[in-house]
Amino acid sequence: MKNFWIRTASAIVYVILFLGSMYSGMLLDNPVVGNFIFGFFLLFVTIGCSYEFFRMVRLQGACPSEWLGYFYAILPLLLVMFVPLMGLHGFTMMLTAFTIFPALFAFAAILQLWHHGNQPFRDAAYTLLPLLYIALPLSLMMAVQESYGAHLLFLLVALVWVNDSGAYIGGSLFGKHKMWERHSPGKTWEGTAFGMTVAILAAVFIGPLLTDIAWYHWLALGIICSVVDTFGDLVESMLKRSVGVKDSGNIMPGHGGFLDRFDSLLISMPFAYVYLMLVVQS
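Below the sequence we write its predicted structure tokens.
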């Protein structure tokens, strides 16, 4: 029972900080200030996730250039935070960022000349990975908020939460057949199906009420978020099992670390953003 209350209190603090920063612009009636508050919250999460990632890959014997990795990780968020002040569009800046990835990797590889690891190209790739795996998806959350508003971003985040909660409840009640025991022994097909069903229904019925996006787009977003969410959780479980740890960290008592809480969002947000930009906006 004590652990239940610890988990509950930790989750409440997490939700208040997340949603409070997300809606800070509306609460303060100042979108610019709200953009910076949300941006700094995501910067905090980015640094926390990157720290946990580097800690885990060091357990594999990797020697990434961590200071460079942190710089790469915070750069996209800083760009998106200051893009509105420069009168530019966030998506344009993201596309520009993609063009410099080869240069970023090349610099990380050059630095390995001064390191003593026995797999320098692996270490250079690990240096760059937090930018791709962590920073860009979190930056896309800010881009979604700027382009479509806090309500739509909240719904995308909520779909991931609903899918995870539904999968846990469904697995507890009906779970019999293991889905991917090698990476996540507790995940079942029944729980996954239950979570996806609840998330898709929530998207179709609640999405059109809070946004001006049609129900069929929300059907697609519900499917995208629930399916990709499941794989996001499995990807992080695969990483943790490869280094022999149960949780990525302990920042949230009873829940684990930053990566444990944001793993699904990191994978699902790019897919949702691409759908919004290429299908909904067009």
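The two ends are 51 Å apart (CA to CA).
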